[in-house]
Design brief:
This protein is mainly α and about 300 residues long. It contains 13 helices and no strands. It has one domain. The protein starts with 15 loop residues before the first helix and ends with a helix. This is DMT family transporter.
Length: about 300
Amino acid sequence: MTVLDHDHVRSSGTTAAERVRRASGPGLLLAAVATVVWSGSFVTSRALHDTVPPVQAAFWRWVVAIVAVAPFAARETWRQRALIRRHFGRITLAALLGVTVYNTLVNQAGVTTTAGNMGMIMAASPVVMAVYERLGGRRLGPRRVTGMTVALLGVLLLVGDGSPIPSFGAGDLWMFAAALSFASYSVLLRRRPAEIGGLAFLFATFVLGALMLAPAYGVSLAVQGGFTVTAGTAGPLVYVGVFSSAIAFFAWNKAIALIGAARAGIVYYLQPVCVAALSFALLDEPTGPLQLLCMALILGGVALGSSKGR
């Protein structure tokens, strides 16, 4: 259910178009916050690839997130338990796509591909979001389509090392699957039941997603064994649990409610730029003239696609 109704006019005289314009600024800012914070999670996934098995990293991420969100959301979730039961199927699907599957695939990709590639490939998800919204009857507009095309060209050149026809390894393919899962989750958010509070919805998806991940976690423990808890493993898990999960998901969900998945997806193209900068600073992954040129294309496309023509 959409949060903004474009046909409704309030008694105060404020038109729907004016309310949409007012929501654009906060919505774009929230999408940018989520994108920047998520960029760090790709770096942590890559940093943990040889110390924490992917499924175990995903499971503990959500355990930390549940603990972080519970003091603020548990009471509201309990009060709205009847609504959650009524919409249980839709909430469970959102949890499966956005919590159980998406982050596990990201961690799996981090085993065999670089953080830079992970961020670049995830930038394909706005294309899927836009296709979903167009199939749903939402008009994208030439400015947004042009900006998305320019940014996507920058992403393809980055992944292909200067060639618009890139070649992909196993980790890259895992990331494409993650991008599809995240895009599906983002579009599903647009139909989130409006009567369920944002924190209650977030907390319910975290809990359900962790429960669905628990059997795979048990198998991973039995087959791969556990991991040693050190500052080098606990610190990144706390980051992805508190910042990349609790804070970033709340910001992204709110951004979707304000401006829709397609427009928020344009801002998501900033992620390769942020990931490249972080991976260069923290993991010594290379950044050269080609990367800088492609980043300029991505930033230009984001600026064009997220702006509003008069």
